[in-house]
Design goal:
alpha/beta, 4-stranded parallel β-sheet, 13 helices, globular
């Protein structure tokens, strides 16, 4: 039996059903699950390995519901720094067309390492282009080596520029090939078990890059295989205009017509959902990945998160791609979510704990993982340890208010009971070598262009 005792947390933010915040608390981990929570647990288990968390805040591991890990190779590209969504994509497509399996693997490791250091224990990924032999397998291998809980989605683009779509023709695939590969990766990698480290989803990229038929067929395939569905929706005004002109309806209606609503579906962004679409998502349990930093960076607007939550829409946070954020820090994302809602609707629009809830149990619920995102007996042992004895928290009256005054990197990170960050350093890979490899790849891509 593998076990670990986290002893003496100054504050333990549980995100359980009672929203408890405990003082001077211990957490006992056994076989990848939380076995007990309370005071002085060491007296009943004197021989266990101990992680001393005095002077620390312990939260559930954070959850990232939307990312494009391959984009960590194209941060801060000058020609794309000031572009709206469609121009931004068209600037970057030619660079992404040069990526290889090694690029996809390395950029996934970089993106996941950055997330881990920001307290993330569970991340989705939306890989929707597969140039030069790249496969979803490349990102899955990267996550397995790093040790993060992973929910990759097999994305796709099938409508190229010559057929009225946005992507260039050399980055799209035949729809029959897309569906066949979806079946392959689900059968090979998807694990539906409670402690699963890898669950695969199906994710046609967006309404402006795939056909109606692929959207419908993907939904049928996913439901037949019992996996989740994901895509981009209602991201900005350009997106709404495209939907109205091409499909004769708003994005919410388009999604509903094709079977893309339900508790097994989550959509990224949803910045421009109108009240009727919010009601539709609430009634059907359709989830939303809110990506506030990316939405600001691309000038897309402020998503109506307060209205979504009030209506009962499941909402989690996503860092989105590192070419549009251009960071991958979930604490920063949660703080931005809180600040944007307050800027738009007043200081009471979103409290710090509500924003942290989006980053933990909210995201876990969107991804269909209620056993994650909270600290409760029986839940998975995914825990983030934050040192609140440093300068970032000095003078704070409430160290549990992490998003107001606190660190943005973890001291320790536990995933399925395994410590993958110790004293601020990843234990599962050589960060220096990884960064050097990624930077060499970027230099070669720039030279080739």
């Amino acid at each position: 039996m593998s076990a670990l005792l986290l002893r003496g947390a100054d504050h333990l933010v549980t995100m359980d059903d009672a929203d408890r915040v405990l003082r001077d608390a211990d957490v006992l981990v056994e076989n990848g699950r939380i076995a007990a929570i309370g005071a002085d647990l060491a007296s009943n288990a004197p021989d266990l390995p101990v992680l001393d968390v005095h002077g620390c805040l312990v939260t559930p591991g954070l959850v990232n519901t939307h990312h494009h890990l391959f984009q960590s190779l194209t941060r801060a590209v000058p020609a794309a720094q000031d572009a709206l969504l469609f121009d931004w994509l068209q600037t970057l497509y030619p660079i992404w067309a040069r990526l290889t399996p090694e690029h996809i693997y390395t950029s996934a490791q970089v993106g996941l390492a950055e997330l881990a250091l920001s307290g993330c224990t569970l991340s989705s990924d939306h890989l929707y282009l597969f140039p030069n032999g790249a496969r979803l397998d490349d990102t899955i291998a990267a996550a397995a080596e790093l040790g993060l809980r992973f929910q990759p989605t097999r994305g796709a683009m099938s409508i190229g520029r010559s057929q009225g779509g946005l992507p260039p023709d050399d980055l799209v695939e035949r729809e029959a090939d897309i569906l066949e590969d979806c079946l392959r990766v689900i059968d090979r990698f998807h694990d539906a078990g409670a402690g699963s480290m890898c669950r695969v989803g199906v994710a046609p990229c967006s309404p402006f890059s795939v056909s109606r038929e692929l959207m419908r067929d993907a939904a049928l395939l996913a439901r037949d295989k019992g996996v989740m569905l994901h895509t981009h929706l209602a991201e900005n005004e350009e997106d709404i205009a495209y939907s109205l002109e091409t499909f004769g309806c708003r994005p919410g209606q388009y999604a509903q017509d094709l079977g893309w609503v339900g508790r097994d579906v989550w959509h990224a962004h949803c910045v421009k959902l109108d009240p009727a679409e919010i009601d539709l998502f609430a009634a059907t349990g359709t989830g939303v990945a809110h990506c506030p930093c990316s939405n600001c960076r691309l000038g897309s607007g402020i998503a109506p998160v307060t209205a979504m939550r009030a209506a009962g829409v499941p909402v989690g946070l996503g860092v989105d791609g590192s070419a549009s954020n251009d960071a991958g820090n979930l604490v920063a994302e949660a703080r931005q979510a809180m600040l944007l809602q307050r800027a738009a609707q007043g200081a009471r629009a979103m409290r710090p704990m509500a924003a942290l809830e989006l980053a933990t149990r909210g995201g876990a619920d969107v991804l269909g993982r209620p056993e994650c995102g909270r600290i409760a007996v029986g839940c998975r042992a995914d825990l983030a340890v934050w040192d609140v004895s440093g300068i970032e928290t000095a003078g704070s009256w409430d160290p549990a208010a992490l998003l107001l005054a606190g660190p943005t990197t973890v001291r320790d990170l536990i995933v399925e009971g395994r410590q993958i960050v110790r004293d601020g350093q990843l234990t599962t890979l050589d960060m220096g070598a990884l960064i050097a490899r990624q930077n060499r790849m970027v230099q070669a891509l720039r030279a080739a262009l």
